[in-house]
Amino acid sequence: MARPRLSAPQARSLLLDCVEAVGSWVGERDAADLERPSVLPGWSLRDLVAHVVVVADSVVHLEPLPRSAPTLTVSEYLAGYPERAERISRLTQQAAAQAADLSSAYTQRWTAAGERLDALGDVESVQARRAPARLADFLATRVVEMVVHGDDLARSLPERPGPGLPAGAVAFVARLLLDVLAERHPGRSLEVRVPPVAAVQCLPGPRHTRGTPGSVVETDPLTWVRLAAGRTRWQDAVDAGAVSASGERADLSAVLPLL
After folding, report:
1. Is 138 helix (H, G, I), strand (E, B) or coil?
2. Are 65 and 126 in contact (CB under 8 A)?
């Protein structure tokens, strides 16, 4: 059974908490920090921060849609990321080149994003750059962006404290990505557990009806987010002991990443 979805105000609150946490971290970085390479191949920290500015612009450009307009699910919206990777990279490079002061650009664009959300009011659906979506669902994808990239920033400067991402936002993103896994790969042959967040069953094959499932994967919320976002390889996480996998179907390497 699908879990209840967040309302737009709830998703907005989670998003703005993440924006504040990442913004504080960005404001503490100097020019030398920003020129260092990030954990994303070919991107500096400056590029990574610029990308988060582009995320703000995606909110600024939202347009209202009629209530009856067809919209994509969160899973469908996130599935469009790979085909748009080149355009996303181009927008990021442009933002990095144009912003003399990335901290100021970050603050200005996210302030504009908040103003755009105020202007949209209680609209139910919006046209985003990529596709139409329920406003709540679109904002949920922005929370995914902020949590994933906030963690990217932290891993890029491991000797410094990372952005203090709200635990509730990390838990929400982990839960959402579990639901995406179950939606894209339905079945009951494997149970994926991310305590204390949630558990889902997925993958076609023999199902269990009671007792302990034949195949179980268990990990923590942040590791699951990294796996689902392609930041950590499945086998690396298993070898490091960050993932417990038991049973003949306990292998997600063929279906990850989800983004």
Report:
1. helix
2. yes
| Extended beta strands in 165-225, E state | 190-194, 198-202, 216-219
Under a CB-based contact definition with an 8 Å cutoff, are residues 12 and 117 in contact?
A: yes
Question: Pairing mode, if any, of strands 216-219 and 190-194?
Answer: parallel
Q: Could you report the per-residue pLDDT of 87-137, keeping only the tens digit for each?
A: 878 888 888 788 779 999 999 999 999 999 999 999 999 999 889 999 999
Q: Under a CB-based contact definition with an 8 Å cutoff, are residues 152 and 231 in contact? A: yes
User: pTM of the predicted model, to two decimals?
Assistant: 0.94
Task: Determine the Cα angle at 64 with ends 59 and 70, to 5°.
Answer: 105
CB 244 within 8 A of CB 217: yes
Measured between its terminal Cα atoms, the distance across the chain in Å is 23
User: Structural domains in the chain?
Assistant: 8-165 (1.20.120.450), 185-246 (3.30.1050.40)
**Contact by Cβ (8 Å): 254, 229:** no
